[in-house]
Write a structure and sequence with these properties.
Number of helices: 19
Mean pLDDT: 88
Number of strands: 26
Helix content: 25-40%
Largest sheet: 9 strands, mixed
Length: 700
């Protein structure tokens, strides 16, 4: 019996393959050493979120007694849980090996990561002083043996599991002390930097991890026990992070979200990670007390967990071991001096962060807040910076008498508490809050202002592929279109109306709005390419996005491929489509780019029989974006902006340094060809530098 080839890659496995590409950055010798450590932190942080959300979802399906084959790409939940665990164990093993190699290379650069056994006398004195002054006051330590109930461990917090073997002298010891073994947990404090820089010696830099300072000072932690030996090994758990929102009609939406976020602290564990060198009796003690079940992912790891902290590894003043900093550029023809609104009234402009400065969005909002002619500001918010200038601009606008309407998504994953805080603060300032549409997340990134000009209300706005977050704008690549085109902005106003009148479904001639139109709109465009290909006309589709999981859209692209449409996909993360398969997808090529910046934009280019159509959007081709969220896509009518978007797509597509090829083997092979080396993120910056010519004013 011939086994049928699969049509799709399982979503969870594809995500793990994406995180493997992040791990590849840790190995790449072209990446500076400290940056490689930081990529290790990103890999670990990604894995934490994967277990909180995706693994937790599969576990829920399994525990409900369902196979889940219909929603898991044909795999049974039980089999998938086992496959994920096996996959992650191998990735963890590899990450430990990579870390050791990086540490060896750092030593060749006079950067030494020491553990508690390697400290000199002078360094030991520093460690003890540091422990007494900064660590000890924040240390949470729990003796486990006599507790009737095991303490509730915090989600992804790191703990040292301590075993003390006591000295036994029955005549002098109390009954309490006769117990041969004592077990304890020490929570690694979060309020202290995980990496402690020791005094420099000549050209040599020394760093010790906070865990090892605690290990070095164990005598100070447990002076009351007379032990003959003591050992400590790190453990951590990851809890289910899905929000279970109750239906209590007496609670406000903010209260419901807050309650659900608080419940995460006691939700079911979905992963237990431990130091593979932990003693068997200690591990057995912990598993028994914690009630670790078969469905939980039990993963042996290295000596240190929470490697996400490596994202904050100290620079040590070694700029030679980090990426060169780039100065974000101005947008050609759009001056930050004078009025942005007057310039946008003349033509559309494209901001592409981090190559361009994020200051244009802030300048737009600040100008709107102060301009006496501006009457109203409407904006959607999904994620904001910790100390958000965007929020400050909205607050300032209210103080200047503007009517400000803010749609803030309280269910933005892992940003719920921050968004609740901003919602309450801005509401207190007088901002009108909208909490979206029942059953739908609002993921669109849009802003619009009303400005009275010569007795007539004129609109200005911007539509983006990314969040209005000045912090992530330094590392996420995203497009933002500034426009004063009335047909687009009139429909943007309809989107805001939909937030307040959710039963009314508007019609759109220009914008592409989920959940009602995005899927059908793009299917029509694909169908047109299919017809053109069958008629012998040139037909192509070029798409750049974060993730591609919708089977309906995959099948539609397979249909287009079989009709002869040439398809190029750039997908950073999950890609369930399998390109290059004869009879199914031989006309589809797909790559992923993982590099210095996180590729985040969504862009769509259709040949349209030579009259090329270009769109940007907040939506990926995922079921949630197409059917369960409010998303906004926008056509590009300005010729300069359209050309710019096509150019930047081509630069990315021609990457042969950081591009990995999607294929049946899912091996994350780098694209190799005989063309001159092109690293797309560096080439994109050079593209915008060339656009400016000699006119490069200083920004930020």
């Amino acid at each position: 019996m011939i086994k049928t080839k699969p049509k799709y890659i399982n979503r969870e496995i594809s995500w793990l393959r994406f995180n493997e590409r992040v791990l590849q950055e840790c190995e790449d010798e072209n990446v500076p050493l400290i940056e490689r450590l930081r990529f290790l932190g990103i890999f670990s942080n990604n894995l934490d979120e994967f277990f909180k959300v995706r693994y937790a979802t599969v576990k829920r399906i399994f525990e409900a007694g369902k196979s889940g084959k219909s929603v898991l790409g044909g795999e049974k939940a039980k089999d998938l849980l086992e496959e994920i665990t096996k996959f992650v164990i191998e990735q963890q093993r590899k990450s430990v090996e990579i870390l050791k190699n990086i540490e060896n290379e750092l030593e060749a650069q006079d950067v030494y990561l020491l553990n508690e056994t390697e400290l000199s006398e002078k360094q030991g004195e520093f460690a003890k002083k540091y422990f007494i002054q900064k660590v000890s006051p924040q240390l949470m330590t729990i003796i486990l043996n006599d507790l009737a109930e095991f303490p509730m461990l915090k989600d992804t917090a790191a703990y040292l599991a301590v075993k003390m073997v006591l000295k036994s002298d029955d005549r002098t010891k109390s009954t309490y002390e006769k117990k041969e073994k004592r077990y304890a947990l020490i929570e690694i404090p979060k309020g202290i930097d995980r990496f402690v820089v020791l005094p420099k010696e000549g050209n040599k830099n020394y760093v010790i991890i906070l865990d090892d300072i605690i290990r070095y000072c164990m005598d100070s932690v447990f002076p009351m026990f007379d032990y003959k030996s003591i050992s400590s090994h790190m453990i951590k758990i990851t809890r289910d992070a899905e929000l279970d929102i109750d239906n209590d009609l007496s609670k406000s939406f903010i209260e419901k979200i807050y309650s659900s976020v608080e419940h995460r602290k006691i939700s079911d564990p979905v992963r237990f990670v431990y130091d593979k060198n932990i003693e068997t009796d200690t591990l057995d003690f912990l598993k028994e007390k914690m009630g670790i079940e078969d469905a939980d992912s039990v993963i042996p790891g290295g000596r240190y967990h929470n490697k996400r902290d490596y994202m904050g590894f100290p620079s040590l003043g070694r700029e030679d071991l980090m990426y060169d900093k780039i100065a974000p550029l101005p947008v050609k023809g759009l001056s930050l001096e004078g009025s942005l609104l007057e310039q946008i009234a003349e033509k559309d402009f494209l901001q592409y962060t981090p190559y361009h400065t994020f200051s244009y969005i802030l300048k737009f909002l600040r100008e709107a807040a102060l301009d006496p002619k501006v009457k109203a500001i409407k904006i959607t918010v999904y994620r904001l910076a910790n100390d958000s200038q965007v929020a400050a601009c909205l607050s300032n606008a209210v103080k200047n008498g503007k009517q400000v309407t803010l749609q803030i998504e309280l269910r933005a994953r892992f940003d719920e508490q921050a968004n609740i805080r901003y919602a309450e603060e801005l509401q207190a300032e007088g901002v009108k809050l909208i909490f979206g549409v029942p059953g739908l997340k609002v993921h669109s990134k849009i802003c619009m202002i009303d400005r009275e000009e010569n007795g007539v209300m004129k609109r200005y706005g911007f539509i983006s592929t990314g969040n209005f977050n000045e912090s992530t704008a330094r590392i996420y690549t995203d497009y933002t279109l500034f426009t004063a085109k009335e047909p687009i902005l009139k429909e943007l106003n309809k989107v805001f109306d939909f937030f307040e009148t959710t039963y009314k479904i508007n019609k759109y001639k220009h914008l592409i709005v989920s959940p009602h139109y995005t899927k059908s709109f793009f299917i029509k465009l694909i169908d047109k390419e299919i017809l053109n290909a069958k008629a012998g006309k040139e037909a192509f589709i070029k798409i750049k996005m974060n993730s591609f999981t919708s089977y309906k859209m995959i099948d539609k692209l397979y249909e287009a491929s079989n009709a002869g449409v040439k398809i190029q996909l750039i997908v950073r993360g999950i890609c369930c489509l399998i390109p290059g398969v004869e009879g199914m997808s031989e006309n589809i090529e797909a790559i992923s780019i993982v590099d210095k910046f996180l590729e985040h934009p969504r862009m769509f280019i259709f040949c349209n029989a030579g009259d090329t159509r270009v769109f940007i959007s907040s939506a990926d081709f995922m079921t949630r974006n197409l059917e369960n969220r409010v998303e906004v896509g926008c056509p590009i009518y300005d010729e300069d902006v359209r050309e710019e978007l096509i150019d930047t797509f081509e630069i990315s597509w021609n990457d042969n340094v950081k591009a990995r090829v999607f294929n049946e083997e899912q091996d994350n092979a780098y694209r190799i060809n005989n063309k001159p080396k092109l690293r797309s993120q560096f080439a994109t910056y050079d593209y915008y530098l060339d656009k400016l010519g000699s006119d490069i004013p200083t920004t930020e």
